[in-house]
Design goal:
The complex is a heterodimer. By secondary structure, chain A is an alpha/beta fold. Chain A is built from nine helices and ten strands. In chain A, the strands form two sheets. Chain A has a six-stranded mixed β-sheet with strand order 6-7-8-3-9-10, sandwiched between helices. Chain A has a four-stranded antiparallel β-sheet with strand order 2-1-4-5, covered by helices on one side. In chain A, a hairpin with a 2-residue loop joins strand 9 (205-210) and strand 10. In chain A, helix 3 crosses helix 4 (110-123). Chain B contains twelve helices and no strands. Chain B has one domain. By secondary structure, chain B is mainly α. Chain B is globular, with a radius of gyration of 20 Å. In chain B, helix 1 (10-50) runs antiparallel to helix 2 (60-69), helix 1 packs parallel to helix 5 (106-123) and helix 7 runs parallel beside helix 12 (236-262). Chain B has helices spanning 10-50, 60-69, 72-89, 93-97, 106-123, 126-134, 145-169, 176-190, 197-203, 205-210, 215-228, 236-262. Classes of the chains: A alpha/beta, B mainly alpha. At the A-B interface, helix 2 and helix 3 of A face helix 1 and helix 4 of B.
Chain lengths: 245, 265
């Protein structure tokens, strides 16, 4: 039997007794993009922050390559990259310094760090802003740098929490291209979004979260076929209506 | 779990984090030294040259310099509390640190080390400036430098823990002033900064015993024992033992509270 890449098992999360996740089960296949979809408050950010080890679950476990991530959290963290919804770069450092520091934390050699900065700054088109402080950048550029930082140490899994939220449509399109490029490099992506079009464009699998539970998981094509709809958005609307009934 | 990964040592990550912290601190270090210079010279002028005209002994200047050696960190601790609370409430850069390849609690160990280094850096100025201002009334040859290094390190580690502890229960920047008025100011002023524990004991013995619960009492008394000699101060090694106890207890409690507040793994 092959070992699953990442498996979320019966994960629950409560904030002051208020449930945010109520027994989530989910499997991520290696090299695929899984889109976590749901309305505000569905539990997307909570689930992604648990997988990113920023928050602990109240109950349940997360397995990476067959082993609980909590058995050796530092090893797991070495293999993931996390881009939060709101970029949390260090405002006292330039973009170059932010990336250099990140590389050093993950044990990269100086020559490798320099190479990665050039490569990622070129790929995400922020070379001209390398000497700027992050506080001097627009939201779109901060988000690009944030994604680049998540990829800097060559993780096997990247967690992108609403990476295009609040961005202009043309910047969103650019970021979609970047996400596709990440997948092309063989990296597994967990993409949290509330843009259905984004999930449809990018995801191999879509997982719909609703009130802290997984409502369904399938490929966008299968979902449209099952629900006899032409767009994923229509599927989502039908699900929302069923939920309200 | 690992698939072809080269494990990174926790010490390496913490060392690199502290290097980054110090790189940022270097940008403000001169300004901080100017602040310290103003504080030391003002205090020394008042207590060594003005207050004796109101009946204070002339040696009080040296007494105050000795007290100030390990108090510099306390002021900087307040500004670190502000930085932490602002981050917990705002940018949440702390969450980035929780994704680095180290156990989450070690992020706070790194903060304690970094804070201790910067507090020590700021306190370095006190003795040389004090000597320049007091000259004959402060003897640097009488300072026990071994003991001085021990007590200053412990005092600054304690202030670093205090900063974490205070940040763990201040939920808004709006409440930050209360931290100064309710926590730091009483601890400092009642912590034998301007008087010795023995003099307090002569005036109010019950209060003097209660004051033994104040960690800053041991900071002030221990520092004076190292700088001015043991006579007239609490036993130096008692102060060391008490500070180690407060650092251990405070560190454990601060990280427990921060874990609850920040909900980290």
């Amino acid at each position: 039997m092959s070992t699953k890449f990442l498996e979320v098992v019966n994960v629950e999360k409560k904030y002051d007794k208020k449930p945010a996740l109520r027994g989530v089960n989910l499997t991520l296949d290696e090299g695929k993009i899984i889109g976590l979809l749901g309305v505000n408050g569905a539990g997307k950010t909570t689930l992604s922050s648990i997988i990113a080890t920023v928050r602990p679950p109240t109950a349940g476990d997360v397995f990476f390559l067959g082993e609980s991530i909590y058995q050796n959290i530092a090893d797991f963290r070495q293999q993931i990259g996390y881009c939060p919804q709101y970029p949390n770069l260090n405002n006292e450092l330039t973009i170059r310094e932010n990336l250099e520091a990140h590389g050093r934390y993950f044990g990269l050699e100086s020559s490798d760090i320099e190479g990665r900065i050039k490569e990622l700054a070129h790929k995400f088109q922020f070379t001209e802003y390398l000497e700027y402080k992050s506080s001097e950048l627009s939201g779109g550029y901060k988000q690009r740098v944030s994604i680049a930082r998540a990829l800097f140490h060559r993780p096997k899994l990247v967690i992108l929490d609403e990476p295009t939220s609040g961005l202009d449509p043309h910047i969103r399109n650019q970021l979609w291209d970047y996400v596709k490029a990440i997948k092309a490099d063989g990296i597994t992506v967990l993409l949290t979004t509330h843009y259905i079009e984004e999930a449809e464009q990018l995801s191999d699998y879509v997982c719909v979260l609703d009130k802290g539970l997984v409502r369904l998981i399938d490929t966008p094509a299968n979902l449209m076929k099952t629900f006899k709809k032409e767009k994923l958005e229509e599927v989502f609307i039908q699900l929302a209506e069923e939920q309200n009934e | 779990m690992s698939r072809d990964i080269k494990r990174i040592s926790y010490v390496h990550v913490i060392k690199e984090l502290i290097k980054t912290d110090l790189k940022i601190f270097r940008k403000v270090a001169v300004q901080k030294w100017i602040d310290m210079f103003i504080w030391i010279t003002t205090m020394t002028m008042v207590f060594a040259y003005v207050m004796p005209s109101f009946g204070l002994t002339k040696s009080f200047g040296a007494f105050m310099i000795a007290s100030m050696c390990s108090t510099a960190g306390l002021f900087q601790a307040f500004s670190y509390v502000a930085e932490m609370v602002a981050d917990f409430d705002g940018d949440k850069i702390i969450n980035y640190y929780f994704t680095l390849p180290i156990p989450s609690w070690t992020i706070f160990v790194r903060l304690v080390i970094y804070y201790t280094i910067t507090f020590t850096f700021l306190g370095i100025l006190v003795l040389p400036i004090g000597k320049l201002m007091l000259w004959n009334t402060l003897s640097l040859t009488g300072v026990h430098y071994g003991k001085y290094a021990i007590i200053v390190s412990l005092a600054n580690s304690f202030y670093a823990i205090l900063a974490l502890w205070v940040a763990s229960f201040v939920y808004s920047l709006l409440r930050l002033d209360s931290v100064w008025m309710r926590v730091i100011y009483p601890l400092w002023f009642l912590g034998c900064f301007q008087f010795s524990w023995q003099s307090l004991y002569k005036v109010a013995p019950v209060f003097a015993y209660i004051d033994l619960l104040n960690p800053i009492t041991y900071v002030s008394e221990g520092t004076r024992a190292a700088v001015l000699g043991q006579q007239g101060s609490l036993n130096f090694w008692t102060c060391v033992a008490a500070l180690i106890f407060f650092i251990g207890l405070g560190g454990w409690h601060a990280i427990s509270r921060l874990k609850k507040r920040l909900d980290f793994v």
